[in-house]
Amino acid sequence: MMKVSVIFTTFVASLLIAVSFGEAEVSVKSWDLGVNCGDVNGDACTSKKGYFKGNESSFKHITSTGPTNIYIHITNIKTSNPDTQMVYVCPVGRMCDIVETSEDIVLIYKNVNVISIYATNNVEEYHLQYIMGCNILDDTTIEIDRENGTAWQGHHCWIIIPRLYSGSVKQYTAHTYGILNGVQLPASSTIGIYNLLTIGQKWEVNNDEDLYLNVVPTSTPTSFQKKREISSVVLFEVNSCAPYCNSAGFKLQMSAISGHDMKCIEKKQLCEFNIGKKCTDTNFKCSAYDKLQLLIIQSDVTVSWNFF
């Protein structure tokens, strides 16, 4: 129990440090994951992950061999006329989404085969990152519990959007924490985790490693599906497990925290350990603090701890 207490205290301290100092490190850019589709002959982008720089003369098709989910992040739009329509994103058989401002935007499409992208004459440059073939988790409860030795159903990756409120227009998250434990992977396989809106926030997990995640949101929200806003998107993927993917096992739990909860956790931490003698109420109650503590105890993470 003493070891769990130390882990919990360290985790909460790291979470508060990330909140206090992380925002200055955050910038909305793109990872450049996968293949540079701009270097590929022809217009088709067929790799699972890819990116390219487009302009008024470029025309690209993100193409899958069957219906799948596709995540798109368009950034750094430069235009000679900011008052005109910018970039057209057109899933085959559906209405086009028209990017009408130079602001960054995230678009997610489910069960599509081909998405065509082209820009208007006023666009000098834009950057596009795409990821296809992943499950989409956009919810208040994020849990992936994969038991090793069972048949693998579906994709080997997840696009995760943690929320405080289901269906909300804004994400409202001041922070997101997560716990990954029970990691069992075949030889040469790893788990990769990326905060897709924040360059520099990534982690790679090997077999028998456990991980605590502190996901720092961007200080400026990113447009999502045109009418909504988000500040945290996480890519979670199991790499290079074939042909032994059925032997992979792990449990991931993630939870979004509001600004009010963060202040509550900080105050409870000060009172719990009388840090700097700043506690004015020794009986102060904080349900967010208790929930986090219970999650740490139940997870039984004792191998290692890391945060990003």
Radius of gyration, whole Å? 21 Å
Mean pLDDT: 84
pLDDT < 50 runs, ≥5 residues: 20-28
Number of helices: 3
How would you spell out the order of helices and strands?
HEEEEEEEEEEEEEEEEEEEHH
Which class do the helix and strand fractions yield?
alpha+beta
> How many strands?
19
Name the shape in a single word. globular
Report the major sheet: 10 strands, mixed
What is the terminal separation in angstroms? 25 Å
What proportion of the residues is helical, as a percent range? 10-25%
Fill in the keyword field for this structure.
globular, 41% strand, single chain, 3 helices, ten-stranded mixed sheet
Short account of what is shown:
The protein is α+β, with helices and mostly antiparallel strands and 308 residues long. Helix content is 16%, strand content 41%. It contains three helices and 19 strands.
Q: How does this model look, in words?
A:
With 308 residues, this protein is of the alpha+beta class. It is 16% helix and 41% strand. The protein contains three helices and 19 strands. The strands form three sheets. Strands 1, 2, 3, 4, 5, 6, 7, 8, 16 and 17 form a ten-stranded mixed sheet that branches. It has a five-stranded mixed sheet with strand order 9-11-18-13-14, with no helix packed on it. A four-stranded antiparallel sheet has the order 10-19-12-15. Strand 5 and strand 6 (97-99) form a beta hairpin.
Write the layout of secondary structure elements.
Elements: H1 2-21, E1 35-36, E2 44-45, E3 49-54, E4 59-79, E5 87-91, E6 97-99, E7 105-119, E8 123-132, E9 135-139, E10 142-146, E11 157-162, E12 175-184, E13 190-195, E14 202-205, E15 211-215, E16 222-224, E17 228-230, E18 234-239, E19 249-257, H2 259-273, H3 287-299
Parallel strand pairs: 1-3, 2-4, 7-16, 9-11
Antiparallel strand pairs: 3-8, 4-7, 4-8, 5-6, 5-7, 10-19, 11-18, 12-15, 12-19, 13-14, 13-18, 16-17
Helix pairs in contact: 1-2, 1-3
